[in-house]
Amino acid sequence: MLKSYSDKELFEQIALDNSHAFKVLHDMYSSKMFVYAFNVLKNKQVCEDIIQNIFIDLWSKRKEAKITNIKSYLFRAVKYQLCNYFRDQKISNEDITRLNIIDVSLNASKKMEYDELEEAVYISYLKLPKRCKEIFELSRYQNKSHKEISEELKISIQAVKNQISKALSSIKKDLHEQGYVISFISLSSILGNLI
Q: Where would one find coiled-coil regions in this protein (predicted)?
């Protein structure tokens, strides 16, 4: 079972053209790498492209690459790509400094776990049906009360509660399907008073 392999063993399999081992490695790290990049750029499309390019590059170099610590290699690659992006976009030194600050802060695993879950919740929210998403956004991201939402959208408070409940249920299900093991405490710290 490849999922029980160490990073080193997985990379050895990848070097032998094992595409399933590559997928396992990708699934293990791509979302964490995305969160790391997104915390710096706040640009979903660019971050997705960066992560995709890193894995394409890794696959193309699988035969000759001498990587001893795959996790460290992947995150260094993200940082390198972000620096290149900043340079190409003529981004200020202030933003480069921000990258370094975030890099340091992400060494704290709790910060990383929180950010990863926050991003996963946001991605799940984007998948909600239109009306459900609209109400969830007003509540979660604009901090409006049920009463304020009901008045703004001219619907009952119960309808607002139903849509928020539907959104939370859908998000939790989506997170579970993505493999997140979520405690009530960690999810409530993300969703605040919605739960």
A: none
